[in-house]
Amino acid sequence: MSSNSLFTYETLIHAVSGACGSVVAMATFFPLDTVRSRIQLEEGREAKHTFAIIQELVSKEGSCTLYRGIVPVLQSLCASNFVYFYTFHGLKMLKSSKQQSAKNDLLLASTAGVINVLLTTPLWVVNTRLKMKGVGTDNNNKSKFNSLHGGLIHIWKNEGFRRLWAGTLPSLMLVINPAIQFMTYESLKRRVNSKFIHSQPPAWVFFAIGAIAKTVATTLTYPLQLIQTKLRHGNNSDLPANAGTLQMLMYILKKHGFSGLYKGMEAKLLQTVLTAALMFLAYEKIARFVFRFFLHKPLVI
């Protein structure tokens, strides 16, 4: 297949479907992401069960707090997943079906992840700040911006261009997370599709393999995700503003011990597993619908 396959309607449909699926999933389970952020970033907050924290937040701050920052998060997620799905499936289409394997999926997903991180990290830095705005007493939470665009301009002017890429190193290291996720998902999907030669797998199958893939990826990479979130937020008074990944790691170990690297993991697993499972389900359904009714051709697996 020629290099022009990287720029096709098929690749575009995969990208749009992935972006739409991620928005649907995140909008559905956004309160769980709020709980995850609060546990990871608030030093004094006890890591209770997720639903106990939801009740606590609603009773003390109102139900709206569960959806603080949802618009920029959905904007960032839409852009991020469009880039990721487009790159992954564009590169995948350059290879023949005979070359599809777990090893190749891991390589392609890692490449897509690196490109995604380099292009979209500033978006995630801003929406992490927006989500925690008004929480605590640090200067970042008092920032004078309320939108993704306003946040990008504010941080660039007041903290420097480099600050927009805060947490890039752990983000690049965390490329292994979606890489493992996509490798697991694609491997399981190939096995499932081989058993449904003359029919489509039921919807719950995609939900299940999406959940399995995300559980594996999150469990293996959670400490890096915690460090990434803290660096993006930049609210650690005991550390310099330009603290790096190793400094943050040592800070957490010294103050909270090894268990501190897994603070909030229950909330993270619940949020990411449900969100990823619904995202893959929505992605598969949207992509199949478009291919079937608009291009009148089967989905390229």
Estimated share of beta-strand residues: under 5%
Average pLDDT rating: 83
CATH architectural group: Alpha/alpha barrel
Name the CATH superfamily assignment.
Mitochondrial carrier domain
Quaternary structure state of the chains depicted:
single chain
Q: How many structural domains does the protein architecture include? A: 1
**How would you sum up the major sheet?**
none
CATH first level: Mainly Alpha
CATH domain topology = Mitochondrial carrier fold
Fraction of residues in helix: 55-70%
H and E order: HHHHHHHHHH
Radius of gyration, rounded?
20 Å
What would you call the structural class? mainly alpha
Can you characterise this structure?
The protein contains 10 helices and no strands. The protein has 301 residues and is an all-alpha fold. The chain has one domain (3-293): Alpha/alpha barrel (Mitochondrial carrier fold), CATH 1.50.40.10. The radius of gyration is 20 Å and the shape is globular.
In short:
The protein has 10 helices and no strands. With 301 residues, it is an all-alpha fold.
Key words describing this protein structure:
301 residues; mainly alpha; Mitochondrial carrier fold; 10 helices
Question: What topology does this entry show?
Answer:
Layout: H1 9-41, H2 50-61, H3 70-93, H4 102-131, H5 148-159, H6 168-173, H7 176-195, H8 203-233, H9 245-256, H10 265-293
Helix pairs in contact: 1-3, 1-10, 3-4, 4-5, 4-7, 7-8, 8-10
